[in-house]
């Protein structure tokens, strides 16, 4: 595969990790073409894993892994490209494409899974343990590190909420991007056109004019999750499964590593 004319930035997230808000910041920079979860079509439609709720698929969107990669590389001929996607969409298929993956500038976004599991369940009570997403992130992180010899940057949603400019600024520095102050605010109520296919998933980001903080303290979230999991026991099993992967990634976050 020929090298990209412009850099391609890939943010690997897990559901409800505040990834759409970080994508919105990237859109507001104005210097990258942004793609919103193109590999969702590969996982849910091409592979047919299950029907994804609150999703109106576009007939024009590529479905196969190779066609999606071609779309991304095609956009990079004209300008830098930022892609926000979920790691579980592409694992393990991406491991069959080391040359392609080695050309990308990867980053990872994580959030306390107690917060994300409750948020996910409210929108989709039938989601699977795989779709919680952190295991796939950790396995992808380890593979990229082995492939490139460099650990990709990891940021925590809680750190972005606490100090957006410092945390995102540190991420941009690691990715080779300059700081853009104007990227941290936008017009509330406006959504990019490609978010319309998944409107219910992004209501919170659309309603706000910048990064919104979660007012709940950790102790409150722990208590809320315990009560929530009493009504949805699968969530406790999902948390137990993904918690070690979350801790591995969290220990490597920019706020910890400095």
What does this structure look like?
The chain is an alpha/beta fold and 258 residues long. It has a single domain, classed as P-loop containing nucleotide triphosphate hydrolases (Rossmann fold), CATH 3.40.50. The chain contains 14 helices and 5 strands. It has helices spanning 19-29, 40-46, 65-75, 87-90, 98-102, 113-123, 129-132, 134-148, 157-162, 164-175, 203-207, 218-231, 234-250, 254-257, and strands at 8-13, 33-36, 81-86, 105-110, 154-156. It has a 5-stranded parallel beta sheet, with helices on both faces. It is globular. The two termini are 35 Å apart. 38% of the residues are buried. The model has no long low-confidence stretch (mean pLDDT 91).
Write a concise keyword list for the protein shown above.
258 residues, globular, Rossmann fold, five-stranded parallel β-sheet, 5 strands, alpha/beta
Q: Helicity range of the residues?
A: 40-55%
Listing every helix as H and every strand as E from the N terminus to the C terminus, the arrangement reads EHEHHEHHEHHHEHHHHHH
Structural class: alpha/beta
Question: Uncertain regions: pLDDT < 50 for 5+ in a row?
Answer: none
Alpha carbon gap, first and last residue: 35 Å
CATH H-level name... which superfamily? Answer: P-loop containing nucleotide triphosphate hydrolases
Helix tally?
A: 14
| CATH class wording | Alpha Beta
Spatial strand order of the main sheet: 2-3-1-4-5
- Would you report the number of β strands? 5
Strand-residue proportion: 5-15%
Overall structural domain count: 1
């Amino acid at each position: 595969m020929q090298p990209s004319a412009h850099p391609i930035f890939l943010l690997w997230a897990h559901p409800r990790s505040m990834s759409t808000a970080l994508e919105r910041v990237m859109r507001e920079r104005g210097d990258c073409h942004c793609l919103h979860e193109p590999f969702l079509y590969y996982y849910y439609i091409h592979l047919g894993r299950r029907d994804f709720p609150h999703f109106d698929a576009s007939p024009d969107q590529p479905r196969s892994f190779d066609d999606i990669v071609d779309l991304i590389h095609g956009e990079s001929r004209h300008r830098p490209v930022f892609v926000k996607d979920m790691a579980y969409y592409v694992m393990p298929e991406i491991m069959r494409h080391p040359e392609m993956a080695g050309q990308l500038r990867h980053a990872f976004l994580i959030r306390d899974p107690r917060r994300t599991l409750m948020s996910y369940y409210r929108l989709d009570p039938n989601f699977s343990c795989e779709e919680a997403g952190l295991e796939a992130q950790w396995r992808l992180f380890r593979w990229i590190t082995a492939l490139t010899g460099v650990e990709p940057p990891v940021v925590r949603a809680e750190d972005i909420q606490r100090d957006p400019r410092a945390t995102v600024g540190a991420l941009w520095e690691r990715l080779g991007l300059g700081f853009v102050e104007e990227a941290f605010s936008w017009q509330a109520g406006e959504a990019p056109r490609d978010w319309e296919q998944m409107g219910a998933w992004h209501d919170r980001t659309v309603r706000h004019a910048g990064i919104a903080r979660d007012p709940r303290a950790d102790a409150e979230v722990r208590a809320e999750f315990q009560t929530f999991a009493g009504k949805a026991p699968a969530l406790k099993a999902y948390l137990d499964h993904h918690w070690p992967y979350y801790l591995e990634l969290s220990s490597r976050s920019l706020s910890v590593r400095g």
